[in-house]
Amino acid sequence: MTDLRELLSQNIKKYRRIRGYSQESLAEKAGASLTHIGMVEIGKKFPSVKMLEKIAAALDIDTPELFNTGNVVFIPTQGKSIDRLYHDIIDDFHRFEKSVAERFGELQEGVR
Questions:
Q1: Contact in structure between 27 and 90 (CB atoms under 8 Å)
Q2: Residue 72 domain-assigned?
Q3: Same structural domain, 18 and 46
């Protein structure tokens, strides 16, 4: 399961980018320091409830939306290069593709 701090940081970053805000403009709109917003976005700090409400208001979303798990993709990158991540994704896709083909074959056999 993904860490709550990581979920929050990714959602804040996602909504900030959707709105076209820089960290500096979000900080200004939320009444926070640029350093605080930066630390929240990298998961080093967890804002107070009051600050969460201010950040959500600045992003024009409801506060619970900051904890929404929909449309957020978590990629574990600990110690992995982009090249290794790419190959892992390709390997996963090939396994999925093979599984679908096998299942499709089984379904076709059942129809005959």
A1: no
A2: no
A3: yes
